[in-house]
Amino acid sequence: MKPSLFVNTLGASHLWRRLLPVCWLLLALVGCAPTKLLPPGQNLLNEIELKGVDKADAERMQTLYQQQPNSRFPIPKLLIYQLGTNFYDSTKVRRKLNEDLERYNQLIAEARPDSVEVAKLTQKRERRNRRFQQKLEKGNSIMRIGEPPVLYDTALTRQTVTQLDIFLKSKGFFRSSVYATDTVEDRRVTVTYHVHEGLPFHYTQLNYTIPDTAVERRVLASRPQSLLHVGDQYDEEVIGQERTRLETLLKNAGYYDFREQYITLEADTSFAPTTVRLRTFVADPAPGQSHRLYTIERVSFISDAGIVRFGVARDTIVRDSVKFLAYEHKIRPRILDNKLEVRPGDHYSLANTLLTQRQLGTLDMFRFNTVNYRRLPRQSNTLADSVQGQLAAIVNASPAKKFQETTEFGGTYVSGLVGPFANVRLRVRNPFGGAEVLEFGIRSGFEGQYNIASTDDETSGNPDAVLTTQIGGNVNLVIPQFIIPFRPQRYLVQYNPRTRINASYTFVSRPQYTRTNAEATYDYIWQRSEFHQYVFTPADLSIVNTPFNSIDPAFLANLQELSNQGFPLIQSFTRQLVPSINFTSLYNSNDFNETRDARYLRLYAEVGGLTRKIYQAVFPDLNVFNFARFSADYRRYIKLDSKSYFVYRFNVGAARALTPTTYYPPGSDEQQTGLIIPYDKFVFAGGSSSVRAWAPRRLGPGSFSTLINGKQNLAQEQPGELLLEGNVEYRFPLYSFINGAVFTDFGNVWLLHADESRIETNPDYKNAQFAFNRFYKEFAVGSGFGLRFDFTFLILRLDIATKVYDPTYPGNRWVIRNFGFGARQTAFNLGIGYPF
Questions:
Q1: Which PANTHER family match (predicted)?
Q2: Which of 12, 593, 666, 709 has the most crowded Cβ, counting Cβ within 10 A?
Q3: How far is the C-alpha of 8 from the C-alpha of 26, rounded, in Å?
C-alpha cells in the first residue's frame, strides 16, 4: 500500500516571509571568513588548477584528485556548514547524550524482570544513542546539509601526482611527467598540477601468439570486431575491454572453462619513437594441453524449483529432447520450451545462457531462475576427450505467487480542492496454463477541476473550482506470444513477443455533465534489446458518450460560445466512435530511479478513422473522425558525478484532421462539416511534466488569449494541433535522501489550419496559428526550484515554478517583473516520480 499525491497551483506567499530571515542570515555570513573554522596550523583547500593538458582527457584526470575543494554549486556548502556551527555546541550534545543514557539505564533497571519492556527500552536507547553519536561526529542537521572545510593535505597531493602520472601512461603518454605546486594566501591554498604530456604512442603492429589452433582460428576470424586497430593510440582501458571481448567470444563458442586470465597483451615500444607493437598471447590451460570445447548433452527444466514433496517424484515430460520436470505441470511445456535457447546438441554459449534467463524472467511467472551446468564424466581417455567435453544443463525456476494484489490510496490537490482516490489491482498469473498474466483494476475517486462555465473571481483572481467524481475499471490480458494465424514463435522468441488485450471503462460525473468512455485495444509488443521496445496496435477502438440530457443548459451555452471563439471543446461532448491504428517505439537506457548516464526516445504515430465508412454504416448516429497524430519525446540524462545530473528534454507533437467530417453538435439537429479532431487527440502544454509554471493544459495557443473582465481565463483548456516544448534541469544532492533541482521549461501549442470565419469574428484569433516568422517569439518560459525525496521505492517531488515570459499575457510579456506566489504567476506541483 503506497500513498500518492499531486498538488498544483497552491498559493503560499507566507512561505516567502518565513524564508526572508534565513536569507538575510546567509547573506550576513557571506562576509565571514570560513578560515576561522580551521584548526591551528591547517589551511583550507580553496582551488585546484590543471595546466598543460592538451590531448589527454582533462575531465577524467580531475576525477583522480585525492582531495576536492568544498562544493560551491548550486549552493556554497561550506557556508551552510558555517551557519550550522553557530547553533552547535558539542559539549551540550555530549551532556545530553550522557543524561539520556542515564535515564534509559534507570528505566531499564526499573522495568526488570519484564523482558519485553526491557527489550523495547533497550531499542529506544540504542536508537537515540545513534542519533547523538551522529551529531557528535557530523554536527547538527544544518551542518550535515553543508560540508566541513577541506583541510589541505600535502600527502594527498603527492598521491594525486602519482595517480595522474599512471593515468597518462595508461593512455599512451609514455614520456609524460607531472608535478604539483601550491600557493597559500590568507590560509587558503591553490594547488596547480603541471602536466607535460609528450607525444602519444600509437599501434604500428598487432600480432597474435596462440598455441591452440582451434582457438586461434576463432580469434583471428573475429579480428574485424576487434577494439584494437593499427594507428590507434595506446590505451590500457581499451586493452582491458579487448580481453573481455575475447573471453566472451570464446565462451560463446563453447569454451566453458575459458577465463580472461589466459589472455595477455604485451606492448613493445623499442622499435621506433612513439610506436607500439602489441602482441596478444592466449595461453593453454596447461603445457601441452588444449582448451576443451563443450557440448550440451542434455537439458532439464525444473519449473517448480524450491518446492519439496517428500515421497513424491516429479513428473517428466520430454519435448524437443528437453526434460520438463514438475510435481504438477501448471505451465504448458510448449510455452517454456519457446523461451529456451540452451538446447541439447549445441555448443555451450554464455550469450544463450543469459538470453534464456532473461526470457524466462520476462514471463513474470517465476521469482527467480538460474541455468546451471555440470560436467559429465569422460567415456574414455581418447585424444578427442581431451579437447571435447560434455555438459548437463539444469534450468531451475522458482514459481511466483499466483495472485498479487496492490492497493493504492492517495489524494489530489487541484484547483484548491482536495480529492481522495483509491486504486485496487489484482494480478493473476498463469490463469489458462499458457503463462498469461491477467490483471483487473478498479479506480474511484474525486478530483478538483476548474469550472469552465465560471468567470474569474475579482477578489481572488482565481477561477471557481468544482469536485468531480471518477469511477473506472479495466481488464488486461498479456499472452507471451503473438496471436497470429501462422506460428513463427521459435524465430521470434529472442524478441520477447507478447500479445496484449485490454478493455477499460471510465465514468466521469461533474455538476455540468456526465461522460463515459469505453475503450478496447489489441497490441503486439516485442523488444529489440533490453532497452528498446516496440508496440503495434492494429485495433484501438473507443466509444465516448455524453448523454445530451446530462448536460447543464448554461454549460452547453458556454460551450457553444467557446466554439464560436475557436475552442472546439464542444466536440468532446458528442457521441464519438474513435477507431485508430498506432505504433510506438520506446528506447530507454535508464532505470527507475534515473541513476544512469542514459538516453530516452519515444516515437508515436497514430492514424484514426480509416474505416469510418464501415462504422458509420452500422452506427449512423456516431461521429467518426479521420485524423493523424505524431509525437517524439527525447531525453538526455548526463551524469556529472555519483549523485548530480544534467537533464534536458525536447518534446514535439502534432495532430491533424485528414478529411472534413460531418457531425452533429450536442443540442443541435443541424449537421456541420469541418476538419475535426477528437478532443482527446489534441496536444496540450502546461502541467507537472510539461511547462511547470502553467496549470495542466492551460498554456497557449500561440499568443492568443481569451479574456474575461480584462484578465486571462485560467479555467479554459487550450487545445492545439502542434506542440513544441523543452526542459532543462540540474539535479543535485542536498541532504541524505533529499535531492534538489533547478530547472527552466519552455514551450507552447499552436493551431495548424486557419478558420477564416473565426478570424473575422475575433481578429486576434490568427495569433493562435503557427507561423514561421513569429513562433520563436511565442515560446512561454518558466523557471523554478524543486525538491525530490528519494525513498528508493518511492520518489516524492515538489516543484515550485514561476512564469518568466508569457506570450499570451495582455501586457508586458516579461511577467517575471510581476513576481509573486499567486496562482496567476507561480505554480506549486507535488507529485510522484520525476517529471521526465
A1: SORTING AND ASSEMBLY MACHINERY SAMM50 PROTEIN FAMILY MEMBER (PTHR12815), TRANSLOCATION AND ASSEMBLY MODULE SUBUNIT TAMA (PTHR12815:SF47)
A2: 666
A3: 30
- CA dist., res. 493 & res. 513, Å (int): 48
* % of the chain at pLDDT higher than 90: 41
Strand intervals (E) in 215-365: 263-268, 275-282, 293-302, 315-319, 322-326
SS3 state of residue 488: coil
Cell 473571481 -> residue: 457
Cell of 28: 550576513
- Cα distances from 47 to residues 67, 164, 296, 331, in angstroms, run 10, 17, 60, 64
Choice among 188-197, 353-362, 631-640, 804-813 with the minimum mean pLDDT: 804-813
> Phi-psi category of 247—alpha, beta or left, where left has phi over 0 and alpha has psi -120 to 50?
alpha
Q: What confidence tens digit (pLDDT) does each residue in 488-546 have?
A: 556 677 788 899 999 999 988 877 778 888 999 999 999 888 889 999 999 999 888 88
Gap between the Cα atoms of 493 and 487, Å rounded: 11
Q: Which 3 state secondary structure label does DSSP give 809?
A: coil
- How many Å apart are CA 101 and CA 714, to the nearest integer? 58
Instruction: Count CA atoms within 13 Å of residue 51 on its CB side.
Output: 10
C-alpha cell at position 728: 532543462
Radius of gyration of the chain (CA): 34
Q: Residue 239: which H helix or E strand, with range?
A: helix 236-252
Nearest CA to 708 among 348, 399, 463? 463
**724 alpha carbon, distance to own chain's centre:** 21
**φ/ψ (deg, to 5) at 641:** -150, -165
Share of the chain above pLDDT 70, in %: 85
Which neighbouring-strand residues pair with 393? 299, 373
| Number of Cβ atoms within 10 Å of the Cβ of 460 | 12
The string of DSSP letters for 669-693 reads -S-EEE----GGGSB---STTS-TT
Distance of CA 604 to the CA centre of its chain: 18
Distance CA 369, CA 194 (A): 54
pLDDT band per the 50, 70, 90 thresholds, residue 276: very high
Confidence of residue 8 (pLDDT cuts 50, 70, 90): very low
Neighbours of 92 (CB within 10 A): 10
Mean pLDDT of 698-727: 78
Q: How far apart are CA 10 and CA 379, in angstroms?
A: 79
From CA 577, how far away is CA 246, in angstroms rounded? 58
The pLDDT-based confidence of 82 (bands split at 50, 70, 90) is: confident
pLDDT in tens, 418-468: 667 788 999 999 999 999 999 999 988 776 665 555 544 433 344 566 677
Instruction: Looking at 317-367, list the stretches that DSSP marks H as alpha helix, in order from N- to C-terminal side.
Output: 333-338, 350-361
* Omega cis (within 30) before 113: yes
